[in-house]
Design goal:
Largest sheet: 2 strands, antiparallel
Number of strands: 2
Number of helices: 6
CATH topology: Arc Repressor Mutant, subunit A
Distance between the termini: 25 Å
CATH class: Mainly Alpha
Oligomer: single chain
CATH architecture: Orthogonal Bundle
Radius of gyration: 19 Å
């Protein structure tokens, strides 16, 4: 089953932007992500609508941050992407009247709610500035592939 890597890809693009002094075009970001510029524009438009990035046209134009990295949480990015589904598992629906299925669904549902709450709290408490610090520390320790 294919995983949804959209959040990871967007964070990857945003870290490339954080490393540049000047705005990055959709074509620049597409090269970083090995994708099409149209996909980048579509995704970045959602981030622009959420007030995370801005875009400029013409010479010197491109995507840049609308506010400091310390004010942008991973939860902000997740929400701007439309809150992708976090987990592929979920309740069964084949026998809704069965008390065993109901019990299983309740236990699984409670566990998933707890896991989602933990993940959302972690996203809320992690900013793009935190991610940039981690990236820069990794780069200093010899991991320099910034694909």
């Amino acid at each position: 089953m294919k995983r949804n890597s959209r959040l990871s890809a967007v964070l990857h693009a945003l870290m490339h932007m954080a490393e540049r002094e000047e705005p990055m075009t959709s074509d620049d970001l597409a090269l970083c992500l090995d994708t099409n510029a149209v996909v980048v524009r579509r995704t970045m438009a959602g981030l622009r609508d959420a007030g995370i990035v801005q875009s400029g046209r013409g010479h010197g134009g491109g995507w840049h941050f609308a506010k400091p990295l310390t004010e942008i949480s991973l939860l902000d990015i997740y929400n701007a992407l439309g809150e992708p589904i976090l987990f592929q598992i979920g309740p069964a629906t084949e026998m809704p009247g069965c008390v065993i299925e109901q019990s299983v669904n309740r236990v699984i549902g409670d566990a998933l709610k707890d896991a989602e709450a933990i993940l959302m709290a972690r996203f809320a408490g992690t900013t793009l500035a935190d991610l940039a610090v981690d990236f820069r520390a990794s780069a200093r320790h010899g991991r320099t592939d910034t694909g």
